[in-house]
Amino acid sequence: MSTIDSVLTETRVFQPSAEFVKQANVPGMAAYQALCDEAERDFEGFWARLARETLQWSKPFTRTLDESNAPFYKWFDDGELNVSYNCLDVNLANGNADKVAIIFESDDGAVTKVTYRELHARVGRFANGIKALGYKKGDRSIIYMPMSIEAVVAMQACARLGITHSVVFGGFSAKSLQERIVDVGATLVITADEQVRGGKTIPLKPAVEEAFAMGGCEAVKNVVVYRRTGGKVAWTEGRDLWMHDVEKGQSDQCEPVQVEAEHPLFVLYTSGSTGKPKGVQHSSAGYLLWAALTMKWTFDLKPSDVYWCTADVGWVTGHTYIAYGPLAVGATQIVFEGVPTYPNAGRFWETIQKHRCSIFYTAPTAIRSLIKAAEASPDHHPKKYDLSSLRVIGSVGEPINPEAWMWYYNNVGGERCPVVDTWWQTETGGHMITPLPGATGLKPGSCTLPLPGIMAAIVDETGEDVELGKGGFLVVKRPWPAMIRTIWGDPERFKKSYYPEELGGTCYLAGDGANRDTDGYFWIMGRIDDVLNVSGHRLGTMEVESALVAHPMVAEAAVVGRPDDLTGEAVVAFVVLKRARPDDAEAAEIAKELRNWVAKEIGPIAKPKEIRFGDNLPKTRSGKIMRRLLRVVAQGESVTQDVSTLENPAILEQLGKAL
Ligand code: WTA
Fold first, then answer.
1. CB–CB of 646/626 below 8 Å?
2. Which atom of ligand 1 is nearest to the CA of 538?
3. pLDDT of the residue at 445
4. What is the pTM of this model?
5. What are the AMP-binding enzyme C-terminal domain coordinates in residue numbering (predicted)?
């Protein structure tokens, strides 16, 4: 709680300069307020107007919002369009054909640029290629690719044909990949031979082979492979095809398949508090509308900007703010293959300087690690680079602490660029609570105010609004076009997770705790459920626990988060082995094995930072594990809470000792 108190006492407010306001897409608070008022006054009219102005419809919609089957809301549902048409063809028609769409900066610094015309042609050829293989609207594909132009081509080609894609982050293990292939019912997998990050190659196609060997993937007819490195890979004739062979001989022109507004553009898996990751299903029209609008509102995007989002396409940020949003507004964007610290900690700053980047969007965990690196190696401090091209800088993925915010503002933004701290989620599709750079006064550590049309609020457990200054659950009281539509194959879980009866059944529960100050600014306090946020990546404690107990040596496991200076939160696991509790030397060995095991089961990001072994776990008499106490123990603090309901209070002392 102490960190929350400290951010709430932060009083500095940074107003946008008059110069910025004058040129802004949303110029000043009055303009922001006018949009909010419009949404309040005529909610459906507001969204209908924006949807007509922003997107090109092959069949115009006549119904804006259908709430008859809430919380399964439908938006613009009798309209039709094609997402890829709106991202590519529209730009060919409106004078952007020869504008650079993507500046690809590879791991080793080589640069490839593609214009909108070229990107349109590549997507057309690839879409024609997979169409020729028999894939069509309604099919599902898995995309397991590195950061590349080809990943964007793959996503856009699927969108062009109405194939619902599910991108799996390249850092996820074969096991995670297999689970997603099975759950989404994929018939097509698009991958690469290997990926390159930080000077190292990491296999991708071999993980696909491994996933197939686990079984359940028999529905997959083809594996299309982008040749990134030329590394040797196993090959199944008839099933496996090179991406360049699929494109070969195909026409640049591929007629876009017009889909209903609600057609699922993609399913993206994310962690929840219980069970397996859930497949968050997004729509076509509502999603794209918000991707395009927030590009203009939050980033103040203009035709002359060079925009860079450092996220991976495997996360929602890489979907909305790389694969779709920037293209939908005709932006020039940088797509980066590498890591922030290779070949040195100045890589981000050098890349901004090299391409005259003007809008930069990254995560607090990257900022924090670069603060440390800049201190350790002053040559790679952002001040050593020419960052004068920047005009807006953004943050996403977790709360940004005021200290990191100030460093970012001063050293990267040159005390000139507004910092847009964007709060949103895989489920929300796009930004929800964020400053508008030409309007909102900024308070370091606060994501400030909801976007127009987003009815965010803070309520107590009965759904009543709490007073300003009091913490509670962050909710959204009205639906919005880019919202999650359902959990793939599990509508009941969708309802239970996001629209609980306790809150009336029509109020979206985000799963975050938040506070509002007397100016109405939102301060996010972190998850209220068993979801951890490690380096901006969501992880369910249950997921890590299931991975641990799947190891033959493990009888029981409980996983909690611990605040961490660098990664935000760190995973701490308490483990009971089937055999006797190991001594220190043995414990270190077993801990290492278990950490690697988790990396194999889920992915390296899920590796526990620390594992502690006990004879048992702290449980109530009814057998419930007391995670609340374990969180205290994990932080190295002594338990002062009442432990009288514990079956075995002595266990706390044993678990309190770190290795
Ligand atoms: C957290 C990432 C504070 C939050 C786009 C949310 C944030 C979860 C912020 C969603 C922010 C994201 N300030 N917390 N600006 N942005 N979060 O689904 O806990 O990977 O619920 O989406 O990240 O993570 P997800």
1. yes
2. 20
3. 93
4. 0.93
5. 543-624
